[in-house]
Amino acid sequence: MWKWILGAISAAVVALGAIGGVMVYRTAQLTAAPAAAEAAGAAAPIAIDADAAARRLSQAIQIQTVSRTEGVVEDPETFAALHLLLAREYPRAHAALQHEIVLDHSLLFTWSGSDPALAPILLLAHQDVVPVEAGTEGDWEQPPFSGAIANGYVWGRGAVDDKGSLIAIFEGMEALLAQGFQPRRTVLLAFGHDEETLGGGASAIAALLQQRSVRPWFVLDEGMAVVEDFPLTGGPVALIGIAEKGYMSVRVTARADGGHSSMPQADTAAERLSRAILALRANPFPGGLDDGPTGQMLQVLAPQMPYAARLAIANRWAFNGVLIRQTEATPSGNALLRTTIAPTMIDGGAKENVLPQEMHAIVNLRLHPRDTVDSALAHLRAAVADIPNVTIEPEGTPSNPSPVSATDSDSYRLIEAAARTFAPEGAPVAPMLVLGATDSRHFAGVAENVYRFAPMRAPQSELGRIHGTGERMSVENLTRMAQFYAELVRTGAQ
Predict the structure, then answer these.
(1) Which of 89, 128, 222, 462 is catalytic?
(2) Residue 221 annotated to the active site
(3) Which of 426, 371, 423, 379 is nearest to 400 (CA)?
(4) Residue (of 397, 342, 346, 440) closest to 126 by Cα position
(5) By C-alpha distance, which of 15, 32, 27 is closest to 304?
(6) Spatial separation of the C-alpha atoms in residues 102 and 190, rounded to whole Å
(7) To 5 degrees, how large is the angle CA 451–CA 453–CA 457?
(8) What CATH number is associated with residue 221?
(9) Is 161 a residue of the active site?
(10) Which range marks the domain in which residue 448 is found?
(11) Which of 458, 483, 487 is CA-nearest to residue 224?
(12) Among 105, 155, 294, 340, who pairs with 142 as Cys (CB 3.0-4.6 Å)?
């Protein structure tokens, strides 16, 4: 996809003469970072009973811990049933780890280390799942809450998001306990109950840790995985989320005189609302490769990319604009560069022959780390300032983007090494901006660094099943994830 700029870059290199030679030299120096040497006598991966893990995930899926509405737990008994399942299936963890219930349904486990001076590790997952859209149940290969184990997969809502991580963490910790492992560094496990809505459970756990003056060394949550056909390289890439976008919806309201539709005024509420939406879309937020993880990701992945891309990345001082235009050419690439603006709902009017006095639209924004709720609101209002009787106000509970966590920290290197171990051989490990929201955002001011990764391997097409039809977790991925969490704790907490 870089062919169209290759000619332009080559012409620039020739025209610049000696400077062009410097560009070529810088490109030649852009090589993959050497993987950390494997320690002599390194321990083999923890053994996990794959069939037993699949059976436990199946049972967890059958418990319908569905979240629909912010602040509302529709069926508390489902969470109680899930807690009983975890206690029954993971007796060592429940005996050895301190166990607390937070905000009625969220869980906090503490595996006390032998050295209280060491900052703890905090692993996250969430218990709740999104509902299945009514009328789509018949489109699933297996019933959505059956937990069916078939064709190498565990099927059902929450298999990936996020009961797979929940079960994998418990499998890993139970296996370590069976071996008699005792951590030097305390290990915390936190499982919120409403990540799919408000995230109040995770927020309460974060507040509790802050109240106790507990500052985790790092937090690791869901959010990124190993994409087997990553579009920039065409091959597998392990992506570690080092930041995530913020979330804000706004209500755009347009007002005008009402009346009979047989005598419409020159500027109706519907027309004003339409102009407002078009004005918002015509005034995108500034984008760029700095102020976020995307520039770092390109730098890591450049050695696996076509020569034209490598040359441009190695010489960003000359080709930054080209890189931005190339990246923003797709919706997913554009979302990595800037805050996005998406009109999602429109309503107004009471009858087909009555001119409405008010029309409304909901516009959803995913905030880039360079923006805030306040700055984004100011940008939107400026875009519609010349349209009369149009207002923009926040809708719901907005959240700012997370801070960008370090990639030169010991905690990132620990996760990177574990990711490299469980990713396909030779796959690069790169930082990434998470476009959605996770419970980890609540721990940004509590932990030293916050990361988002699990070593689930999947092509892009498989990832589309998350929150969609046919969600499933391969038994192989579930086993790999359990081994990953065990290895992370065994290495990081020893």
Answers:
(1) 128
(2) no
(3) 371
(4) 440
(5) 32
(6) 10
(7) 165
(8) 3.40.630.10
(9) no
(10) 50-231+402-492
(11) 458
(12) 155
Token digits of residue 210 = 């802050």
In a domain, 383, yes or no: yes
CA distance 410 to 477: 26
493 secondary structure, DSSP code:
-
| CB atoms inside a 10 Å sphere around CB 86 | 23
One-letter amino acid of 340: T
CATH code, domain carrying 268: 3.30.70.360
Residue 418 amino acid letter = A
Alpha-carbon distance of 285 to 307, in angstroms, equals: 30
**Contact (CB, 8 A) for 78 and 157:** no
CB 121 within 8 A of CB 492: yes
Collect contacts of 3-8 with beta carbons under 8 A, ≥24 apart.
3/308, 5/308, 5/312, 5/322, 5/326, 6/306, 6/307, 6/308, 8/322
User: Same domain, yes or no, for 212 and 253?
Assistant: no
Torsions phi, psi for 260 (to 5 deg): -85, 140
| Dist. CA 417–CA 37, nearest whole Å | 10
d(CA 417, CA 397): 37
Where on the phi/psi map is residue 420: left (φ > 0), alpha (ψ -120 to 50), or beta? alpha
The token duo for 310 is: 């490598």
Q: Are residues 146 and 105 in the same domain?
A: yes
Give the global pTM.
0.91
DSSP output for 226-239: EETT-TTTSS-EEE
CB contact at 8 A, 63 and 156: no
Instruction: Measure the CA–CA gap between 475 and 487, rounded to whole angstroms.
Output: 18
pLDDT per residue of the chain (494 residues) written in tens, 0 to 9? 444 444 444 445 444 455 655 556 566 666 666 555 444 446 788 999 999 999 999 999 999 999 998 889 999 999 999 999 999 999 999 999 999 999 999 999 999 999 999 999 999 999 999 999 999 999 999 999 999 999 999 999 999 999 999 999 999 999 999 999 999 999 999 999 999 998 999 999 999 999 999 999 999 999 999 999 999 899 999 999 999 999 999 999 999 999 999 999 999 999 999 999 999 999 999 999 988 899 999 999 999 998 888 888 999 888 899 889 988 999 999 999 999 999 999 999 999 999 999 999 999 999 999 999 999 999 999 999 999 999 999 999 899 999 999 999 999 999 999 999 999 999 999 999 999 999 999 999 999 999 999 999 999 999 999 999 999 999 999 999 999 999 999 999 98
Extended beta strands in 15-131, E state:
98-102, 106-111, 121-126
Length of the chain: 494
> Catalytic: which of 161, 162, 174, 195?
195
All residues at 6 or more sequence positions from 357 whose CB lies less than 8 Å from its CB, including other chains? 255, 256, 257, 258, 269
Considering the domain architecture, whether residues 219 and 83 belong to the same structural domain is answered as: yes
